[in-house]
Amino acid sequence: MFLKIFQNECLHFFKPNNFKGIGKRNLRNRPDFTKNRYKVTRGNYNYLREGHINYFQALLGHKRVIMDLSDLEKYNVDWYTQVRGCSSIVLKPKTTEEVSQILSFCNKQKLALCTQGGNTGVVGGCVPVFDEIIISTELMNDIISLDENSGVLVCQSGCILQNLDNFVAEKGLIIPLDLGAKGTCHIGGNVSTNAGGMRLLKYGNMHGNVLGLEVVTANGEIIDCLSTLKKDNTGYHLKHLFIGSEGTLGLVTKVALQCPPRPKYRNVAFLGVQNFDKVLKTFKFLKAELGEIISAVEVIDTPTMDFINQIVGQTSPIGDYPFYLLVETSGSNEQHDEEKLNHFFEAALKKFLVLNGTVASEPAKIQALWSIRENIPNGFKICSSKMMYYDVSMPLSNYYSIVNDVDEFTKGLSERVFGFGHLGDGNIHLQIQLKDDLTDEIKKHIDPFVFDKILSYGGSISAEHGIGIIKQKYMNRLKTVNTLNLMKDLKSLLDPNKILNPYKVIV
Amino acid sequence: MFLKIFQNECLHFFKPNNFKGIGKRNLRNRPDFTKNRYKVTRGNYNYLREGHINYFQALLGHKRVIMDLSDLEKYNVDWYTQVRGCSSIVLKPKTTEEVSQILSFCNKQKLALCTQGGNTGVVGGCVPVFDEIIISTELMNDIISLDENSGVLVCQSGCILQNLDNFVAEKGLIIPLDLGAKGTCHIGGNVSTNAGGMRLLKYGNMHGNVLGLEVVTANGEIIDCLSTLKKDNTGYHLKHLFIGSEGTLGLVTKVALQCPPRPKYRNVAFLGVQNFDKVLKTFKFLKAELGEIISAVEVIDTPTMDFINQIVGQTSPIGDYPFYLLVETSGSNEQHDEEKLNHFFEAALKKFLVLNGTVASEPAKIQALWSIRENIPNGFKICSSKMMYYDVSMPLSNYYSIVNDVDEFTKGLSERVFGFGHLGDGNIHLQIQLKDDLTDEIKKHIDPFVFDKILSYGGSISAEHGIGIIKQKYMNRLKTVNTLNLMKDLKSLLDPNKILNPYKVIV
Fold first, then answer.
1. CATH of the domain at B173
2. Cβ(B127)–Cβ(B83) below 8 Å
3. Which of A299, B176, B266, B313 could lock onto B203 through a cystine, CB 3.0 to 4.6 A?
4. pLDDT beyond 60 at B51
């Protein structure tokens, strides 16, 4: 029975009557198949056959080979319901050796694979496009060691980020990465996508924080670069090949992570600013004044604040201003941190950099201020059928120009254009609220303008979300021919049969 | 005349009468040729011929093609006088395009190359082994841009580290890298060796601080990954291939570097500690108490302090203790930083973690305390004929064990064994003072023991200095077969004719 379904490439697979209570998703939210929406042609891979299934079941046992249609849905659709594949099998290895055997077998059999962690990616990177075999890291969730002297944590790649942070918190340490999806995402996915998030400003990105990796390449070979040392200059620094390559060069099985001391005290300031020029001047001033204790600098524009007010009833606690800054400090001395932040705030008021503001030290008030920022994505998700969003990196001098440009270009089509995000990292989330529901035609009209503009400013069309399948077609425009060719050569070297996460990043 | 010399592979090249006032080096210090000392066989490269020289002179002009024997010496011997090549030509390109043309030409002609920055490496990585053409980055020293809002500096790879730091200091920024060799080393060399140094504890390594690179690969292709963005997740993160690969995969031509705000105030504590267990406990305590303002934690043992006292008259300002810790803080508020450090010091005394100490805030006293640490390498250099030194990374729990092990093993041969270094990064400099001058026989006896011990503790035989030629023969023992094969595959992919820095790192 299975074989027919596989060979029909999704045609009959997701019939409504196959669904039986599938978590929070419902049928109305199911997107069109990725292959149709993004016009992808299936690669020349083998189809899954009974012999393959027998092999996997012998290796993992029946319980760790998932083929029940109702169980498969959540692996085939992403959290944002943008992409949809039609894999008919999920494998759940527990060990590196099992991963190695699966990959070795699939490589010989030319079976395509898609590795999935918490399935929280937003560019369709961890969801199959066709019938790729899904390898879920759900059961690879052992914490292997924590060296309390050095702060080095070693764990399997399927550990959930929040669980790791809870674990190291007990020892006075912090995971140097914090995402909205932390309760679901896996550390292996964070590594594979070079995830950014809220703490990047303070602790830097995964390339700086990952001390070592264990990775299995397409042919099943285990690459052991699981160093736990801060300094280790012996040979090529291979781990970086796998950080941010979105599972297309290898499957991360273990991670060694540097965990800094957990800051003891947090303070937050919420500030009203007159224009974007003053936002930049305030940012420069606060870097000089608060230096080592800054842990987040977020910006929110008026359209975003108004929208969140309308949709979720969230208001500005300081009245209306053209721009708002949320500044967080994290330090080791409560009194010092408060003094610094208050001094900065008073000086910024005197210099007319900020017009108004409030400073919080108590956890409840801090949480209330952060909830303004955190409510933004929730608000946008409610109106998602009319929304277009872009994850953009910009040089700071033109950080907000892209919002004005897009506002001008989409006049008549858009209701409002919003800009908010991690100012401290040059990362702006650009959102367009359309008058009508988003169609592929509108997307085709607006996307090229936005991407061209971003590139003309020297920005990046994917700050922290990666390329996945959704931005794949733009890769040729983002890089020089030499650079693209080197990426393709690396792919061919590490995965000659192109079985790892096909159709994504580099094709 | 030249051709004969080249083809004799160094036999006649460094005759004493070729030397005419060559800086601070003298003939007594000239080491044996690397090819003899390390028993290297010349690769199947072409020899330099008149046609090649004509090509280089046409491309660069006569002044930027150095062939005068007296001028060549300083490029053929390293600073520590450990290695010696016999190149007869130094090329001094100014632009990426010139580098591209040189590499393209040499690749076609199968001429081997050795790139050299400030020639401050300590593993023979930037000095030719045979007659490799030396490409000096001395004239690639343009600072291209500094974005004061984001702190992003873009420059050519031949800029001297100290010059860059002076330049950004004027704008209130700091280069996140500080080395003893900063007045001489080039930023391109720092990138290519993933240089560590004094500020790594605070700012992390080059993988975290380099935002973008421009690199020329062996065939002359320019790889443009000169992003100036903190977040840019578009495709493979190619720049990391070239960070730490010691010039064997490509020649770095431009660097984009993230420069944090320059700390305004420094404080230093110099502490006496009873044993290594208490050193570790003090380190853990100071991380918790001083958190975000710690910028250096250096350890010095008694044999090292005694030696420096004898050799350069440097004494401990706090009396004699088994171990000394030098702790530096860098922050944005003078009073806060002093308070934190004083509070830590008093609490550490009360807890009997430290036995005595002194704290300094005035620049002159800070400099005096740092000079104790900085005088150590100078002292050892004076007795270099009897010295063996190792740059080791160790898990903190066994950081000092290696010193005791080596002391025990070398009884009868050694006068003293010393341990000092960057405790905060797990990086110990292990030195052995022999009773007699170091010979190759002694080296062959001691090296394997030291390296075996380091590896048995899960340490690294090269923390920050790299592999170069000096540690090349150990590579097979440091990595698994799969890992080594992947390194070799990367070398073959990027430099199929193996013209870039041959005999080093991976052969």
1. 3.30.465.10
2. yes
3. B176
4. yes
